[in-house]
Design a protein that fits this description.
The protein is of the alpha/beta class and 372 residues long. It has 17 helices and 14 strands. The strands form two sheets. Strands 3-2-1-4-5-6-7 form a seven-stranded parallel beta sheet, with helices on both faces. Strand 1, helix 1 and strand 2 form a beta-alpha-beta unit. The radius of gyration is 21 Å and the shape is globular. The two termini are 15 Å apart. The relative contact order is 0.13.
C-alpha cells in the first residue's frame, strides 16, 4: 500500500514522533514523507522525504510570539494553501504520480488539504488535535484561547476520517473516530537507563527568540551546571555548556540530568516523565504549549513559569519541590509506540477500503484515472 506522510516542520518534536513509527510502516508499505524546515532536516537523511511549504511562526522584539508578524509574513503560504496555488499544485502533482492510498499527517495542513481535494482518505496523527477532537480540558484562563485555536485547527486541517492523538496526559475523545494514546518513546530513549546527575538540562525550541537575557541570567545565578540545547551558541561559558542538536547525546544528557527547564512541547514532556525528570515548563506564547505547561503542573511532575520574567528564585523553588515531583512520575510514565503501530495498521486497512472519489482538476483527474 502507498502512504504519503506529512510532517509539520516547525520544531523537532513532530519529526521525532514520526521517526518512531516510520520504520514499522515502511516494513509493510511504500511510504513517502512530505516535510518542511526542521522536520525535513531531521527526516530526509533517514527516509525518502520531499520538501514542502511551511507556516512560520514569527516573534516580536521582546521574544514573544507576534500574531501580527506571523499573519503578515505568511500571507503567501496561507494563500497558497487556501487557493491551491503553486505549492499546493506541486504537491498535488506529486500525489498524482505517487498515487497514495492513504495520507497521514502530523499537524501538516498541505498534505491533508491536498488529500481532501483529491479524494484520498486522511488520518491525522499528532498532539495538537487534542484541543479540537477531545472534550475541553482547559483551565478557565485558557478557555477562550482554546476555543479559538480549536476552531482554527479544524479549519486548516479539515475533518480527517480517522484521528490518532499522542499525548503525555490523558484526554477524552469527542467521537468514535478519535483515539488517544501515550507519548512515543524513541529507540534512543528506550536504550538509556536514567541516572541522577547534578546538571540541569535546558531546551528551547526556538532559542534565538526564547533564550532571552533574563533566562540566561537566571540560569547563571542558579550556580549549577546547565547544558543548553536550542541556541546557536556552542561551548562552555561559565556554568553554561551550549551544545548543538544531536539526538543520542541529547537523550543521554536528559537521562542523566537532575531536572529539565525549557519550552513545554509534548515530546519533551513525555520523555522527561519517562526518565523521571521534573520539568520547569517555560511555554512558548502559543495555546498548546500553555496547556501542556498547565497539565505538567496539574499532574505534579513539574512547575510552570513565564519565559519573559524567569528569575533565579523560580529555579530554586522548582528544585526544592523536585523530590515531590519525582515521586509522582511513575503513575504518569507511558510509552504509546506499540499502541500507535496497532492503531495505524487498523486505520490504514479501514481507510484503504473507503477511498472517496472526487475529481477537482486535471492533475486530480489524472490521478483518479490511474487509480480507478
Amino acid at each position: 500500500m502507498r502512504i504519503a506522510y506529512g510532517v509539520m516542520g516547525y520544531g523537532r518534536g513532530h519529526a521525532m514522533r514520526t521517526g518512531t513509527v516510520l520504520p514499522h510502516l515502511m516494513k509493510h508499505h511504500d511510504v513517502r514523507v512530505f516535510a518542511a524546515a526542521d522536520a525535513y532536516k531531521v527526516l530526509a537523511p533517514r527516509f525518502p522525504t520531499t520538501e514542502i511549504p511551511l507556516f512560520r511562526y514569527h516573534y516580536g522584539d521582546s521574544g514573544r510570539y507576534s500574531l501580527r508578524r506571523t499573519v503578515s509574513r505568511n500571507i503567501k503560504p496561507i494563500a497558497d494553501l487556501l487557493f491551491q496555488l503553486d505549492g499546493m499544485q506541486t504537491l498535488m502533482n506529486e500525489f498524482a504520480h505517487f498515487r497514495p492510498d492513504v495520507v497521514i499527517s502530523d499537524s501538516e495542513a498541505w498534505t491533508l488539504r491536498a488529500a481532501d481535494a483529491m479524494g484520498i482518505p486522511r488520518l491525522s496523527f499528532d498532539h495538537v488535535g487534542i484541543i479540537a477532537h477531545c472534550e475541553p480540558h482547559f483551565p478557565w484562563e485558557l478557555r477562550l484561547a482554546g476555543a479559538r485555536d480549536a476552531m482554527g485547527y479544524r479549519y486548516l486541517m479539515g475533518e480527517p476520517e480517522r484521528i490518532l492523538i499522542s499525548s503525555f496526559y490523558p484526554a477524552t475523545p469527542k467521537d468514535a473516530r478519535t483515539r488517544v494514546i501515550g507519548p512515543l518513546m524513541r529507540d534512543e530513549v528506550l536504550g538509556v537507563t536514567p541516572t541522577q546527575g547534578e546538571h540541569l538540562l535546558a531546551y528551547f525550541n526556538k532559542g534565538e527568540h526564547l533564550f532571552r537575557p533574563q533566562v540566561e541570567e537566571a540560569l547563571r545565578k542558579s550556580d549549577r551546571p546547565v547544558i543548553v540545547y536550542g541556541t546557536d551558541r556552542r561551548g562552555q561559558d561559565d556554568n553554561l555548556l551550549f551544545k548543538a542538536p544531536a539526538n543520542a547525546e541529547f537523550v543521554r544528557d536528559l537521562a542523566s540530568a537532575k531536572a529539565v527547564i525549557g519550552t513545554s512541547g509534548n515530546q519533551l514532556a513525555g520523555e522527561a516523565i519517562h526518565f523521571g525528570k521534573p520539568m520547569l515548563a517555560l511555554p512558548e506564547d502559543a495555546f498548546e504549549q500553555r496547556l501542556n505547561a498547565y497539565m505538567i503542573e496539574r499532574m505534579g511532575v513539574g512547575m510552570r513559569r513565564s519565559v519573559s520574567n524567569l528569575h533565579v528564585r523560580d529555579i530554586e523553588d522548582f528544585l526544592a519541590m523536585s523530590p515531590f515531583m519525582r515521586n509522582n512520575m511513575s503513575e504518569h510514565r507511558r510509552d504509546g509506540r506499540a499502541e500507535a503501530q496497532q492503531w495505524l495498521d487498523t486505520y490504514i486497512d479501514e481507510l484503504a477500503g473507503h477511498r472517496a472519489r472526487r475529481s477537482v482538476g486535471p492533475a486530480v483527474n489524472g490521478w483518479m484515472a490511474q487509480t480507478a
